[in-house]
């Protein structure tokens, strides 16, 4: 029996996913009602074998949460449930410490196969996903298309340094980390970040990351 946690903002999806998992022949599940806060408690009183975690627009926040959970629960298998098929998002999720990446439109058979693989200590991702883009291929995304137009023209609005800063922001780096990497001060990073958001017409970090992914800017 696998102690399993599903954290998804859509309750209807969560309940439906539980029903699907219960139809599997190879695995049996014991569903635990635990939140992020419960999982991050230091006492780790509840053993969790398998964690299904939603990945949506709050990319930076969720990537940080994954890293925290991975540090505290080294034996828990972490599987992403998402609509994002962007190669950078998939790659960074695995680098954050996940074991499997499932698109929400995948089949039950593929989920069952993926669970079997991660329980053997392997990694798994939905068929068709890639960690690197195909040559000459622009990854599609189910995120809405931004109205600013062609991504090449948008990218020309940014200076070379702003592009470097943006790339690190998408990788969930803090201002301090970006400053150390690019040999500039934390304050200078903050100025570049404000200029980038002003040029791209966004007002917070989450929107900035979403915009960058939508338009293949980083």
TrEMBL record:
Pfam families: GerE (PF00196), Response_reg (PF00072)
Gene3D superfamilies, per the entry: 3.40.50.2300
Start and end residues of each HTH luxR-type domain: 151-216
Domain Response regulatory per the UniProt entry, residue ranges: 3-119
InterPro entries assigned: CheY-like_superfamily, Sig_transdc_resp-reg_C-effctor, Sig_transdc_resp-reg_receiver, Tscrpt_reg_LuxR_C, WalR-like
Coiled-coil regions listed: none
Sorted UniProt keywords: DNA-binding
Alphabetical GO biological process terms: phosphorelay signal transduction system; regulation of DNA-templated transcription
A GO MF term: DNA binding
Listed CDD domains: LuxR_C_like
Protein name according to UniProt: Nitrate/nitrite response regulator protein
Species, as recorded: Portibacter lacus
Gene designation per UniProt: narP
